[in-house]
Design brief:
The complex is a heterodimer of chains A (about 120) and B (about 120). Chain A has no helices and eleven strands. With about 120 residues, chain A is mainly beta. In chain A, strands 2, 4, 5, 6, 9, 10 and 11 form a seven-stranded mixed sheet that branches. A four-stranded antiparallel sheet of chain A has the order 1-3-8-7, with no helix packed on it. With about 120 residues, chain B is mainly beta. In chain B, a hairpin with a 6-residue loop joins strand 5 and strand 6. The chains are: A mainly beta (about 120), B mainly beta (about 120). Chains A and B meet through strand 4, strand 5 and strand 9 of A and strand 5, strand 6, strand 10 and strand 11 of B.
Chain lengths: ~120, ~120
């Protein structure tokens, strides 16, 4: 059982380049989300999705796009990378229980450096 | 809006001793969930314990227990018989009931267990 799989684990980009961080889960979870983790800031929500075809913004959405064409996949796109987007990115998923109590399962993270 | 505050950026404890990590939160909701996540140097986010706000009984998972004070909006984590493997960042997080699965995280406490 793979759980939540993120690729790549590490990436270095130049300012202005674009890339997509991949996230896939095999637990049939409705809810998926992307967080970024910066030193001293905890994890902050970028975008989330409550099901295929439905996405919404979190706390820090600027500079990122998402789409959810299938239940399993939730890619995060950086259209024009900026040094401020240097961070560790986590994808997470959970059941949408309707009560809010389902624990989120996290991927292993992607360390992204923008030069 | 929910907020979560962890006032101890760093803590240390001797192996086999007990340590308590503090967390306070603010929410206007009556029903919500609180979580503690552990992030070891491997960067994985591991769920340690979960508390449902409508349950008065404090949650316990082996050596980990919480002191949930709903009126004070306090949710501290107690680690008994600390082990070297407990060395990690610990994040407190909250999530409201009612269909939204969005987690709000504190900034974390770095715990070091010394031999």
């Amino acid at each position: 059982n793979a759980g939540v799989t993120q690729t790549p684990k590490f990436q270095v980009l130049k300012t202005g380049q674009s890339m997509t961080l991949q996230c896939a889960q095999d637990m049939n979870h409705e809810y998926m989300s992307w967080y970024r983790q910066d030193p001293g800031m905890g994890l902050r929500l970028i975008h989330y999705s409550v099901g295929a075809g439905i996405t919404d913004q979190g706390e820090v959405p600027n500079g990122y796009n998402v789409s959810r064409s299938t239940t399993e996949d939730f890619p995060l796109r950086l259209l024009s990378a900026a040094p401020s987007q240097t961070s560790v990115y986590f994808c997470a998923s959970s059941y949408s229980s309707g009560t809010g109590g389902s624990p989120q399962h996290f991927g292993d993270g992607t360390r992204l450096s923008i030069l | 809006a929910q907020t979560v505050t962890q006032s101890q950026p760093e803590m240390s404890v001797q192996e086999a001793e007990t340590v308590t990590l503090s967390c306070t939160y603010d929410t206007s909701e009556n029903n919500y969930y609180l979580f503690w996540y552990k992030q070891p140097p491997s960067r994985q986010m591991i769920l340690v314990i979960r508390q449902e706000a409508y349950k008065q009984q404090n949650a316990t998972e082996n050596r980990f227990s919480v002191n949930f004070q709903k009126a004070a909006k306090s949710f501290s984590l107690k680690i008994s018989d600390s082990q070297l493997g407990d060395t990690a960042m610990y994040f407190c997080a909250s999530k409201t009931q009612g269909g939204s699965e969005k987690l709000v995280f504190g900034k974390g406490t770095k715990l070091t267990v010394n031999p």
